[in-house]
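[Meeting: bench + compute handoff]

Bench side (C.D.) handed over the final construct sequence. Compute side (W.E.) agreed to return the predicted structure before the next meeting so the bench team could plan truncations. Sequence as handed over:
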Amino acid sequence: MIYKLLKSTTVKLLLLVCTVLSTLILSSFLFNNQIDMLKKQIDNIYFANLIPIVKLQIIADNYKDIVSCRKVKYICDFKNEQEIILQEWSYYNNTYKSNDERIVVDTINNEILNSFKENKLHLFQNVLTRINFLIKYETQLAFKQRKSFVEDYDKMKNYLFYSVIFIIIISTFIVFYIVIQVIRKDKQLTVLNKRYKIDSITDSMTKLYNRKYFDTIFDNMPFIANANHWECAFIMVDIDYFKQYNDTYGHDMGDVALKQVANTLKDYFDKKYEFTFRLGGEEFGIILFDIDSHILENCLKDMNRKILELQIEHKNSKILDILSISMGAIIYKPNTYVSANKMYKQADECLYRSKENGRNQYHIYKG
């Protein structure tokens, strides 16, 4: 049960849809995940390097103002600069630092606090030198982190690229496999439908069109002839003394004879707009579109001759020692509006005349 369900076209198509959706979702997830990581790295570079450098630069500028003032006079009002320096330094000092960085920063922190307590020029100058050192250090660190970021970014980009390629390849393989299966299944269904359609209109033994299909074509023959301004013909064919043939040779041989006659009719009337039917028993029908009386008569002569050329033995025939046929035919002229039933009766009357006049012959209805 499960195996049949998995082989069904519906399940395969659902699997195809799920595969495509899964591919898109997974690709989006990978892409977003990597982009988020990239954003974090960018944020780290910005907040860990750019802002500290800006803060240190503000501190250095204010210390320069203090140093410039102290070089001119001993007493300077630098409360505003001090407030800015302590505020900016507090931010810088409280950010994450490695153990080695923390030792240096703590030392400088003490020096900054001490410089304001003692208010000496050389202490301010010394702190300014240390702050400039930190600026250079943070700048170098930013370059290193940028280099590391670029390397990680390239790795990330390659990872994302190859991941997407891999997903696409796998998805393509699955989709291709499903499509092949669907196409194969569709071809099988097409063949089965075509076979069913052929079987529904074909006589199983002779492989000619059956009586049901004959009724469809024959009933529409006048309309087709009128619409196209064609002369059309209907021929009824009957095997002479076929009952005696079956009685003499058996029904199996009778079926063989029927097939031989059917094949001869089918091979002869094999052009476009020519239809050959088994009407029942040993009786056949032929419908010919776009034909005239001269061609029709030649066809009838040929058919009598070709059946005789089969040389099918029939020792109990009352006219020959081989199998023969009798035929009755009628031509429908466009816009004469003769009904299909009437044409059938007229063709049947001509067939009867052929039988009454000795068989192995044909008669064409003369209206």
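W.E. noted at the follow-up: The two ends are 66 Å apart (CA to CA). C.D. will use this when planning the next construct.
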